[in-house]
Specification:
Elements: H1 9-14, H2 19-46, H3 51-68, E1 76-77, H4 83-93, H5 95-114, H6 126-149, H7 159-169, H8 175-190, H9 193-196, H10 201-216, H11 223-227, H12 247-276, H13 282-295, E2 305-306, H14 308-316, H15 323-339, H16 348-362, H17 367-372, H18 375-390, H19 393-414, E3 417-420, E4 443-452, H20 463-466, E5 472-483, H21 485-500, E6 504-508, H22 512-520, H23 522-527, E7 532-533, H24 536-547
Parallel strand pairs: 4-5, 5-6, 6-7
Antiparallel strand pairs: 1-2, 3-4
Helix pairs in contact: 2-3, 2-10, 2-14, 2-15, 2-16, 3-13, 3-15, 4-5, 5-12, 5-13, 6-7, 6-16, 6-18, 8-10, 8-16, 12-13, 12-14, 18-19
Length: 553
């Protein structure tokens, strides 16, 4: 494809790859694999699927994203951001339809990459991202309270239904489970950072809690008691069962998965670039994410994307190339092939504690930052947060983006002004300056500053009145930063109004795209080329010509 260069970063890093680089990647990949093991199982269980689905996703998607992606150090796999979405899909449509959604989301991500939509992250303001990230963190905390407290009730997927269920059954908590989960959470939160580089807290908690369950025979729910353990062996290929009856209903959740995957993976790449001073290929990254999500459903996997925490662990432990991500996937495969039977002793309370710690660290809880935001950005953040928690991520992003767009339009419109030229405007651009120039009697000049677009065309409404008895009106456009079709039509209508009033409109100073739009539009024919001038001096000369005034020397 000549219009899309398929070039994974792995290809570039293999040239000049040496033994020292491999040692660094081997250590980093092994560490990340240890971190990913408990997280992959925890994310899968919280999403309403078996723990092996999370591990198979981390293996297959982790390998494909590293091998085909557009970054050097990003780690792919299941993430906490998906939990609420996937749990709702499984609850409503079942596991097979979740696999279909994952595949369709992968197709959408591939399309985004091929259509070069890798800059999509730029269109999502940080207040919106912070809002839905915090909302997802709250939902993760709520969904894990069941296993954290040792409740045996089936939890619903809605926010208010979850709260109601917790309120009714919280008195039925299991003291042994609560003691174990609380100890696990405390150990994760208090684990020294300097130790975490070599022994990640989630892995330590997983091992200690499993040993306690085995040695003390603790009466708590485990992977073995709920899922029968994890099968030992390679992931098995299985064809997807297409449910035509629900296919149209699956489009929206599939798009939500794709959108969230694109946002999180590209945000992960941006964070990695900031730490490594590298530059990622966003379109290649979307393509790799899409391919991974198209493949994993055939092995029972769930959606995957770039994992910011695991990527940070990779960087901190010396990972330099995609080989580290491949090593991480390989380690998880070895664990499945060798140690899968031991997984039956892993208590769900420990996994719940791990996810609660993820939720606490995932959110940005510093409210002092919000106090520094403009009021409109704070509204976007709070609204997105509330809608994510109460309804779902799709509604939150749609309304959050709508609010952000409306507020942006208001800001752009408020920055647009039309001022009558006077000497204090004349000290920056000599060609466009009014300083030292004579405005002939019967002429008046105005300057448009800012953006002349659909949200600001009303700034031109009173120009006919403000022009008074002047026969020639000059409108200076050199400080116009944006002109859209609505603004162009408004200029055309302004010209028509002036013509009907016996006045002549002269435009001057337009440059770049604005000049091209004026020249190639109908307004150029309506006004005549003589009334489109390059600068103020030429426009004043045209005014004298129209007014039959001799030049002033």
């Amino acid at each position: 494809m000549s219009w899309f260069a398929f070039r994974p970063r792995l290809w570039d890093t293999l040239r000049g790859y040496d033994r020292q680089a491999f040692r660094n990647d081997l250590f980093a990949g092994t560490t990340v694999g240890i971190v990913a093991l408990p997280l992959a199982m925890a994310f899968a269980i919280a999403s309403g699927v078996s723990p092996q689905s999370g591990i198979f996703t981390a293996i297959i998607a982790g390998f494909l994203i590293s091998a085909l992606g557009g970054t050097r150090v990003c780690i792919g796999g299941p993430t906490g951001a998906y939990i609420v979405i996937l749990y709702a899909i499984v609850s409503r449509y079942g596991l097979q339809n979740l696999l279909i959604c994952t595949f369709m989301a992968g197709v959408m991500l591939v399309a985004m990459g091929l259509l070069r939509m890798g800059q999509i992250i730029k269109f999502f303001p940080m207040p919106l991202i912070t809002g839905f990230t915090n909302g997802i963190a709250i939902l993760i905390l709520l969904t894990q309270l069941k296993d954290f407290l040792g409740l045996t009730v089936t939890m619903p997927s809605g926010f208010f239904a979850t709260l109601q269920t917790l309120e009714q059954h919280i008195v039925d908590f299991d003291s042994t489970t609560l003691l174990l989960s609380s100890a696990c959470l405390a150990l994760i939160l208090l684990w020294p950072k300097k130790w975490g580089k070599f022994l990640p807290a989630p892995f330590v908690v997983l091992v200690i809690a499993s040993v306690l369950v085995l040695v003390l025979d603790l009466p708590v729910a485990t992977i073995g008691s709920r899922f029968g353990g994890i099968p030992q062996g390679l992931p098995q290929f299985q064809m997807l069962t297409l449910d035509l009856a629900n296919l149209s209903d699956l489009l929206l959740p599939s798009f939500t998965i794709a959108l969230l995957g694109a946002i999180e993976s590209l945000l992960c790449a941006v964070v990695a670039d900031a730490q490594t001073h590298d530059h990622h290929d966003s379109n290649q990254e979307l393509l790799a994410q899409g391919i991974a999500n198209m493949v994993v459903p055939f092995f029972g996997g769930i959606p995957a994307t770039g994992a910011i925490a695991r990527t940070a662990a990779n960087i901190q432990n010396g990972g330099k190339t995609p080989i580290a991500g491949i090593v991480h996937a390989g380690l998880l495969l070895v664990v499945v092939l060798v140690a899968a039977p031991l997984a039956k002793y892993i208590p769900l309370a420990a996994l719940a504690a791990i996810l609660i710690a993820v939720g606490l660290k995932m959110g940005d809880w510093d409210i002092r930052k919000a106090a520094q935001f403009p009021k409109q950005d704070t509204i976007v953040l709070v609204m997105t947060f509330v809608l994510t928690v109460v309804f779902d991520l799709t509604v939150a992003v749609q309304i959050g983006m709508l609010l952000a767009a409306v507020f942006f339009i208001q800001r752009m419109a408020s920055s647009t002004s039309v001022q009558q030229l006077s000497p204090e405007y004349g000290y920056v651009f000599e060609r466009h300056s009014i300083a030292g120039k004579d405005i002939p009697t019967g002429c008046i000049a105005f300057r448009v500053e800012g953006a002349l677009f659909f949200g600001a065309v009303d700034r031109l409404d009173d120009l006919l009145e403000r022009s008074g008895d002047a026969s020639v009106v000059i409108l200076q456009l050199h400080r116009l930063v944006l002109l859209d079709t609505t603004g162009l039509l408004a200029l055309s209508a302004l010209h028509q109004h002036f013509t009907e009033a016996g006045k002549t409109l002269v435009l001057c100073g337009a440059g770049g795209e604005t000049a091209e739009m004026l020249i190639h539009s109908r307004i150029a024919l309506q006004m005549g080329e003589r009334n489109l001038q390059p600068d103020l001096a030429a426009a004043l000369e045209r005014a004298r010509e129209l007014l039959h005034v001799q030049p002033h020397f």
